[in-house]
Each structure stands twice: as C-alpha cells, then as structure tokens.
Amino acid sequence: MKLLKKFAVHCVLITTSLLLVTGCQKTEVRYSDTLDKNALMALPFPGWAPSGTARVQTVDMSALASKAKTADAASTRAEVTPLYVVKLDDTHAALVTQALPVGASDVPDDCHACSGAMGAYFFEHSGSGWRLTSKQDSVAESGVESNIGKTGVAKLGDGQFAVTAEWGSCWQGNCGTWLVVVGLQREHATLLNPGVTLAQDNDGARGACSALDAPPSADSNAEPASECVEIEGQWKFQGNRLLVSYQGRLSQPDTKGQLQPTQKIAQQVVYEATPGKLTLVSGSNPVPGF
C-alpha cells in the first residue's frame, strides 16, 4: 500500500513538472492577422519586441561575408528593426528590415567602418492569415557608424519594387555618397547594385576646388596643381528606370601636373531595373571615384 502511495505521489510530481515546463514555453506564432510590421516580426523572430534588448536576435549575415568569415557570420548577433512592409500583390508581401551587428553589451557597434544590413522576409496570405514563406536575413550592406542611411521604397512595375538606401561619409577629407538598390519580387530579394556613386567632394583633402575660386597670386608659394572634384547627383525612379542628374565641376591635372580647364558637369545617367539586375542604358557616371 505504501508503495502504491509513493508511486501515485511520484506520478503527480512528474505531471506537475511537465505542466510547468509546458506553461513556460513560448507558443510558436505561425500566422499574423494583419500586415502590421511589429506583428510580422514575430514570425521569423518569436522572441522579438520593438524595444529593449529583445530587438537583438541571431541572424545569418554570411551572404555579405567573405569566404573566410562565412561560418562566423552565419550566427551574428544583431539589433533587428522592421523598416517597411511592401504588399507585392493581393496575397504576397515582404517585410524589409535593418540589422546592426552588436557587441558584448548588445549595443550596435559604432565605428566608422561599421555598416548595417537590409534583410527581407516574405509572407503569403491564406484563410488563417499571413504566413512566413521565405527569409533572407542579409541582402545588402549599407552605411557607416551603424547607420544604413536614408531608406525608401519605389514601385517599378506590377509585383516589382525597389528598396533604396542612400548613405555617405568622408575619409581624410574625401567625401562621397552612394545609393544601394535592392529589388523585391515574390519570395525573393536581389541586390541590384551595391552602390551607384551619387556624389564626390575632395576639397577637404586637397583644397583644389577652393583654390579655383580664389587663385593664388603669382608670387605666392602655391601648392602644385591637384584634382578638384565637386559633383553631386539627384536621383529618382520613373517606372523601372533610375534617373540620376549630376551637377558640379571637375578639374584634373595632365601628365605634367598642369591643371586643365575646369569642366562643368551637367548630365543625366539612366539605369534600367529588371528582375535581378540594374543596367546602365544611357550616359556615363561622371564621378571619377576615390
């Protein structure tokens, strides 16, 4: 009799323990009733929350890493933030995210070379709601100092969209601006261009552009002539075409170091976005690059 009582007590303890464990486990979220970006985030990241350390998740950044670092990048701790929900058609949508790698304290790394990444998560609608069908934690790299830049979304055509990130920075007085373009289609995101060069200004490094505005007198100890680059581009999408209008000036020395006449830059460049590719179809980019 005592043995039966002990056995019964033991069974009760095991059952209670199982109930407690089950109660502590998080219920897997399989569907979202709406396209609210915070609600959609719960599907690829069940423990995610819009504030605090819950934004830090483990993501796969290997698509952006070199071959030598692919294994380590596959499990990267990053602060993940939803940026846009793009409805591709009546039953398909994409969630675009920003992922900023974090350090030991779960704070995004803040260095000049610390860029972020754009990710894309795809959903399909059924009678039960919106269901996650595929994901790409890292599609494109952009920005510096844990800031991917100014982002936006443009519709290119039926079921085809572009997500853009415009960012810029300076290195030892050489400043530049670039435009990253990611294409969105049903179930897939593609890096269309890692960085269309929009602008360059090297006056902080050489002062050559300022020297053009205030030429030194004949008896001054002038620096040898150097290249002046002062070009800025404004861009916009018209359908599936990216138009970039450049304005500025360019003055370059010849092989003997003599500064050539300043060129006025006023031209337009046209790129065409097709699934998986951004192709230059008209003009040429006047920015010489670093």
TrEMBL record:
This is Lipoprotein. It comes from Rhodoferax saidenbachensis.
